[in-house]
Each structure stands twice: as structure tokens, then as C-alpha cells.
Amino acid sequence: MFACTRALAALGMVGLCLVAPAYAQIAPGTAERPDEALFVFGGPLTSGNFSDAIQPGRWDLESNVFVGAGYQHFFYSYESFQLGLEAGLGVRVGTPVSAEAWAGLVGRLSEFEIGPINITPSITGGLSVVTDTIGAETTRTAAAGESAAILYYLAPEIAVSHDDHPEWEAFGRIQHRSGGFGTIAHIDGSNALTLGLRYKF
């Protein structure tokens, strides 16, 4: 419990360090490019590694499910690129139930259009804290003999919106946490294949 509290405190400090300089240079959003967003998403965890999660033919789904919500604030933009902050909370439902919190930087590229359809790739990177391991993550943690309470967070995503309602986006995202090739721990923690809905304002 003490280790988890320290991990949450560390994540909070990282978030403050990210937010403080960003707010010094935030420019107001516009109707064409809102600078804030709220989103909800969820989906099953997989027993494979991250390299398997990005290949649909290699998905091996667990009975465990991730459900979460998050907030984004974009403070920098250049042409079609936006850079911002993201923070979120989630629950990994299974045996046992595990809570997750994450925060980091998010970059998105609003450049691809097919008629009235807009396709926006993005990626979020930061830190993730959990209250307990779940599924394949538990097995890997035991094998490595290391803690997975705090790991790196990585979330590649593709979002789709329509010109008639650009404030709404549907998206697919991989919810990934790992030790970063041993820089925190020698663990490929967990990977969830998720779908979600975002409202930009």
C-alpha cells in the first residue's frame, strides 16, 4: 500500500511538472480546432505483448476488461499538428479488479481526409500507476520478480470524425503499459484493445 501511495504521489508530481510550463503558453482554442476534450473508452485486455496487440491476426483476448475516461488539453499547435496533456482514470475488471491512473503528453496530426471523413492519428506517452496487476501482467510480474505498480504508458490511437459534427470523434486505442525496455522494469505489462468516444470543446 505504501509503495502504491508513493507511486501515485510520483505520478502527481509528474503531472504538475507537465502542466505548469504548459499553462504559461496556452493559446485559446478555436471553433475549428478546440483545445480541450473529454473521452470514454474500453475493451478487452490481451495476453500477448505490445507487438502482438498492433497485429489483429495475433490478438489473444483475455476475459479481463479495461474501462476508463480521460481529459486532454492542447497547448501548442503548428499547422495540422497539436501537442497537449492527457490524464485519465480507469478500472481493469477481472480477477482481481485493478484501478489505473495515467498522465502524459499527447500529440495528434489532423491531416487526413476522405471526403467528409477526418482521420486523426495520435499517440500519448507518460506514466501509469495501478493498484494491482491483472491477467498476463500478473504472470509477467511474478516471472520477472519486479513491481508493475508504476510503468511507462503508451497509447497509439486512430480517431475518426465527420465534417457535420467535428466535435465528436470515435477512436480505437491500444492501452499499453510497460517497463520501457528495462528502464523501469523488465516487464511488458498489459495491453488493452479499446474503442472510445471523444467530445472536443
From TrEMBL:
Keywords: Signal. Residues 1-24 form the signal peptide. This is Outer membrane protein beta-barrel domain-containing protein. It comes from Devosia salina.
